[in-house]
Amino acid sequence: SFSGKTEFYLSKRKASDGNQIWERNLNFNIGNLWGGLTTASDGGFLLVGGENAANADILVVKTNENGEYK
């Protein structure tokens, strides 16, 4: 999910009941974002975002299985 500003919002929930396991707000100085999310082969997540119609600024973020990145 994306805020339309400078952050990615991640939330992991249980498949059985939808209860939240964790949530993360990852902030970046890139402006208004569009983007996508997929699961990485190691159980983490890959987030891709961009700014403006020309897609001149691209952001790729890899997190671990807990939504943490370094």
Q: Topology of this protein?
A:
Elements: E1 7-13, E2 20-27, E3 34-39, E4 45-51, E5 57-63
Antiparallel strand pairs: 1-2, 3-4, 4-5
Structure, described:
The protein is an all-beta fold and 70 residues long. The chain has no helices and five strands. Strands 3-4-5 form a three-stranded antiparallel beta sheet, with no helix packed on it. It is elongated, with a radius of gyration of 13 Å. The two termini are 20 Å apart.
Task: Supply the key terms.
single chain, 70 residues, mainly beta, two-stranded antiparallel ribbon
Summarize, please.
The chain has strands at residues 7-13, 20-27, 34-39, 45-51, 57-63.
- By secondary-structure content and strand pairing, the structural class works out as mainly beta
| Helix-strand string | EEEEE
- Count of DSSP-assigned helices: 0
| Strand count | 5
Radius of gyration based on Cα positions: 13 Å
Q: What percent of the residues sit in helical stretches (DSSP H or I)?
A: under 10%
Intertermini distance: 20 Å
Beta-strand fraction estimate: over 45%
Strand order of the largest sheet: 3-4-5
Report low-confidence residues grouped into runs of 5 or more: none
The mean pLDDT is: 80
Approximate shape: elongated
For the largest beta-sheet, the strand count, sense and barrel status come to: 3 strands, antiparallel
